[in-house]
Design a protein that fits this description.
DNA-binding, homodimer, alpha+beta, Arc Repressor Mutant, subunit A, two-stranded antiparallel sheet, Aminopeptidase, 19% strand
DNA sequence: GCATATATCTGACTTTAGTCAGATATTGTC
DNA sequence: GACAATATCTGACTAAAGTCAGATATATGC
């Protein structure tokens, strides 16, 4: 009753019936699930017909008929793709938007009901984030973004909050050497966010100086996404960006309270060097030649 | 990107595709899902045809045909129910057992792969337990069991481990007044375990003395199942059992370090009374007249 | 410009799932 | 023992999903 495999399978059973319940409530709108899935995929921004087909794993004949059903109902319109006249683009009509919103409302209501039924809301949400990240790991995408974007600012906020929790003396970003956003966008540097199905789950900044020397800053992985090798992927991505920008030497500072970070740098080929700045927070300094 | 509803829905999406992947791998055995589900239900010990039908939510006509398909394949046998000749009992043949084992192997392999892919195994399992308990709450069943059963001993082991963590001075069951198992089985007392889809997630003991006075002992709820009202259900069940046994006065001892327990007792109509034993661990004593 | 590849559509299927109205046998109740 | 209730089965359906072999139009590489 305790073995890990049984526990995973118990989870699978619980979740299968919950998923089935949502499908059933979708059927309440009087449309077969296949058509509802296509409508929802379009509503969520998938426009390219081939892309939708791949995403839903449908045969091209079936896809074509489902599209036509929705078109006949007046819920979607299709046009040819601008650059490639073989491809088609689908988008919702006003009626389709209303119908899509009704499906969204069902999904949202189901989610709200689940949250309302349970007292341990925050713990449950954290558990769900963790599982979603673990299941969606191969689909976690690293994207270069502006450090002033919402996604980046969310990551940085979480990162500062975590430092404040983990440093004995707390953390105040104003006392630290906060990099100028311009140093972390091309051509000087870069800022990379890891997105897992819409949720930012990690980030790293490459702070350039216009010279062949740059710094890695703000490496953060969401607690729900730890243990998945994401830290390593972020460092690798930052190093690749640095190579592209012609940077020869990378440096970074960190704190020995962040033990997993120090280990990660050592395993990734970084070497410890003496202090190279007077920031009050770091006590550990690394360098890597590319 | 942060609101709880989006997080629940991200979880739903991740899990839906994982569930779909298992269904697909089941289809790889060349049998439609409906028949595979019936075979698996029988393999997992469901024998009564009506019970299987309810469990899988099938129409009786469909059920009958699926059963016959499996029978024609030589995977199951059906016999009439001993006590009621209208009902039928299904069980696996040797070939059916082999086929069932193949499905089990697929499920187990999927679970093992998931665990092997992820470094944070224990945290993930804890998260899965929590979600499975939250989803399966209405199906958590309270069952009277022998306190020496595997399920009960698992609960007690977890309970002692938790006391050891939470008491400043630790916890050694040998120093405490460990109730004799016989005092917690009928007719003197009772022991109740909460089972959620095969996993024990809570327990409570009713320790009788042969008189109209009894004690509540060993109330425990698994961390993964807290916030679901299970503690209250366990107390209610213990009180009902006490009433059945003709007990008029219930007592219990607890420790102020277990704040949520104290709150629960107060909310459930218990009143604080002076110390009534010399056990070194408790510092808080309650009584309830039934 | 021509052969080949790609994206979508159409027609003609099959399989699976699900529904519903009886038929049959058995059980429990008065 | 008659009669209603219950459990399962059968026949006759419909709807949904999925398959597959072309047809058509367009794009790409040589």
């Amino acid at each position: 009753m305790l073995d890990p495999v049984s526990r995973v399978r118990r989870f699978n059973r619980a979740v299968t019936s919950a998923v089935g319940a949502l499908d059933t409530s979708f059927l309440g709108r009087g449309r077969p699930l296949g058509a509802a899935r296509v409508l929802n995929a379009i509503g969520h921004g998938r426009a390219d017909v081939g892309d939708i087909r791949d995403y839903l794993g449908l045969d091209s004949g079936l896809m074509s008929r489902l599209l036509r059903t929705l078109e006949d109902e007046g819920l979607i319109e299709t046009t040819v793709h601008g650059g490639d006249a073989r491809r088609r683009i689908a988008r919702l009509t006003a009626a389709g938007r209303r119908e899509f919103n009704a499906y969204e409302a069902l999904s949202n209501q189901q989610a709200r009901d689940f949250l309302a039924r349970n007292a341990q809301r925050d713990a449950l949400l954290a558990a769900m984030d963790m599982i979603a990240s673990a299941l969606g790991r191969e689909s976690t995408a690293l994207t270069e973004m502006d450090p002033r974007s919402d996604e980046a600012r969310y990551c940085l906020g979480e990162y500062y909050a975590e430092l404040a929790r983990r440093f004995k003396q707390g953390f105040d970003v104003k006392l630290s050497r906060d990099p100028d956003a311009k140093d972390m966008v091309r051509p000087r540097g870069s800022f990379i966010v890891a997105m897992s199905d819409g949720l930012p789950v990690g980030c790293v900044g490459l702070k350039g100086s216009g010279s062949e020397l740059a710094e890695i800053k703000r490496l953060w992985v969401a607690p729900s996404a730890r243990g998945l090798g994401l830290g390593r992927r972020l460092i690798d991505a930052a190093e690749s960006a640095a190579r592209e920008l012609g940077i020869a030497v990378l440096r970074l500072d960190t704190n020995s309270a962040l033990a997993e970070a120090g280990q990660l740098y050592r395993k990734s080929g970084w070497t410890e060097i003496p202090r190279f700045n007077d920031d009050p927070y770091p006590d550990l300094f690394f360098e890597k030649r590319l």
